[in-house]
Amino acid sequence: SYNSLIDYNDQYAMFNSMSLAMGKDARWTKHTNLGKTLAYHFNEDPLVPNAQTVVANTPWTHIILQEQSGLPRTDFDAFRANVQTWVNYIHESCPNPNVEIILPINWAYSNDESYQTNNNTLIANYESVAQEFGLSLCPVAVAYGNYQLDRPATIASDLYSDDRRPTNAATYLACCLEYATIFA
Fold first, then answer.
1. Element (H, E) at 118
2. pLDDT number for residue 1
3. From CA 105, how far away is CA 69, in angstroms rounded?
């Protein structure tokens, strides 16, 4: 995983605790440099443990690719190209040829004047890329959008610790969605 949206409340650790409590043998590890794009992570310095090395050295069952939060809405072509680069590399380099690649759908910022429009754009862009490359989606933005529809006056602000990062409750929601995506 590659983004502060996952890193902010240690979502990976929360997921690991959830999996353990549910009796699952699952461990989420992370590799992140906050606020950077998937392209940045693909081109990291090869002299330090970089993301490509992490992918190539372990037969992962699932790889979660999370793009920088705004890019999938503001520059679809760059988002698509970044995912394609990673998908190609993962299929060529991950020791597990059946690794499942998951894209958690980023959510709109809470201060967006057109919250639902921006959230729907994110969802549509992720769905397009996932369909093109045969990837699984984790519907985080869908849950945020539904929550906001039920509470329009809040603009889902109780899911945000600032204009974009999740509260602990929102991180738990995302963990539940990742768990459901992985374990059906």
1. helix 115-133
2. 43
3. 9
